[in-house]
Amino acid sequence: MRGTGMIDAVGIDLVDIARIEKIRSKWKMKFLKRVYSDGEIAYCEGRAAPAQHYAARFAVKEAFLKCLGIGIGGGVWLRDIEVVHDVGGKPALKINGTAGDCARSKELNRTHVSISHTDRSATAVVITERA
Fold first, then answer.
1. What pLDDT digit, counting tens, does each position of 33-50 carry?
2. If I label 67, which of 24, 56, 104, 114 is the partner at 20 to 30 A Cα–Cα?
């Protein structure tokens, strides 16, 4: 098996895609720029059903906040939690800014991400490890 860290936390979240689409339609780029990185916006907008991908990324951000033991409004910008993909397409997290500061203060050194969605909902699981 790979890795020598200890599991610190597990976070899970489920997001209604229609809710994200409704917010996206109402607030447009104001919402997107507040929640998603430029890379995430480009990725989602390049897909046939952008709302599914935005909802999945929102679920990842919420699941990661649960791992940190905080919620939205807990001092971490959602934009600082970025979903990226490795060369094989596997989702991963890139943690910046206040989210990075919080993760470092908890001595988190590794994350694992799993994302899934249907036409109605998106879900994500995040596992954090400590050295």
1. 999 999 999 999 999 999
2. 24
